[in-house]
Amino acid sequence: MTAQTLDGQATAAEIKSDLRTRIAALKGSGHLPGLGTLLVGDDVGSQKYVAGKHRDCAAVGIASIQRELPATASQQQIEDVVTELNEDPACTGYIVQLPLPRGIDANRVLELIDPDKDADGLHPTNLGRLVLGEPAPLPCTPNGVIRLLRRFDVPIDGAEVVVVGRGVTVGRSLPLLLSRRSENATVTQCHTGTRDLAAHLRAADIIVAAAGVPHLVKPEHVKPGAAVLDVGVSRDETGRIVGDVHPGVVEVAGWLSPNPRGVGPMTRAMLLSNVVEAAERAAAQG
Ligand SMILES: Nc1nc2c(c(=O)[nH]1)N[C@@H](CN(C=O)c1ccc(C(=O)N[C@@H](CCC(=O)O)C(=O)O)cc1)CN2
User: Fold this and answer.
1) Which residues have any ligand 1 atom within 6 Å of their CB?
2) Which domains does the chain have, with CATH numbers?
3) Could you say which of 7, 56, 97, 244 is catalytic?
4) Whether pLDDT at 1 is above 90
5) Tens of pLDDT along 136-183?
6) Which of 134, 160, 173, 271 could make a disulfide contact with 129, Cβ separation 3.0–4.6 Å?
């Protein structure tokens, strides 16, 4: 068996095309979307991701506001920029690129974001709304994973899903999303404390690998025909991406997300979608 490719690049392009139309419809409403980003430090991966977010904005017609601070920035300097973005009317939604440099209290920074401008869905109020089943911007990568599964008709209702990882951007919230009534999956969250990861993986209909451990999921861990999504990003000595999923999994899985061009572009598309939805909500309120 050769797995069907869960093509995130093509799916994100479809989503962006739809967003372009919706943004055009907002013209004249006085609620044009503007995405802000705050990048602290010089991590090459983070610089690439933020640059990609602004390229996407230009491509769909969202205004861009870019703020950068050096790796030596203090907690106070970072919080001052967050306060400035909270108050900037041109910035309708924004993100603080993670991870922040060592020594910075990232939770304090996230808590300072105005929940109505939280384009990442990572503010505690919005994560709380997600738990309560209230409308909220959804965390981008988890939402992108679900959109990708739906786009390729991977059965989610009743599926046994294993999410590997418990980080704030993916692992924490993806099980919440997948276990909503609308998705109806049964989710097991695995992490470094899981005693027999291989046994959990072998029983899964869908595996989402977000541990950041190169080639953690090997062909012998995958039930034939299962869907496997590779969210992990490590880099080899040449800077090339090495995912959490061993390349040999393509021979066993029913569906496989490539990495790059799988979940990454979906993350960016879901960010744009959160920004546009917020502008539409504001326009509807007049
Ligand atoms: N504030 C946030 N920080 C981080 C998030 C997040 O959702 N919000 N997630 C990740 C990084 N991330 C988004 O910011 C992200 C990761 C990957 C991509 C992407 O398009 N990747 C490309 C490959 C790019 C490359 O060559 O390096 C792909 O997969 O095709 C976009 C965004 C951590 N931080």
Assistant:
1) 45, 48-49, 52, 95-98, 120, 140-141, 169, 241, 260-261, 264-265, 267-268
2) 31-114 (3.40.50.10860), 140-263 (3.40.50.720)
3) 97
4) no
5) 999 999 999 999 999 999 999 999 999 999 999 999 999 999 999 999
6) 134
Residue 161 DSSP symbol: E
What letter represents residue 120's amino acid?
D
Q: Which of 3, 42, 52 lies closest to 266, judged by CA?
A: 52
Choose, from 7, 56, 118, 120, the residue flagged as catalytic. Answer: 120
Q: What is the mean pLDDT of residues 100-109?
A: 98
What is the CB neighbour count within 10 angstroms for residue 44? Answer: 9
Q: Under a CB-based contact definition with an 8 Å cutoff, are residues 171 and 163 in contact?
A: yes
Distance CA 125, CA 123 (A): 5
Q: What is the ipTM of this complex?
A: 0.98
Question: Which tokens belong to 211?
Answer: 């541990």
CA distance 283 to 122: 23
Output the six-digit token pair for 225. 């025909």
Mean of all residue pLDDT scores within the chain? 97
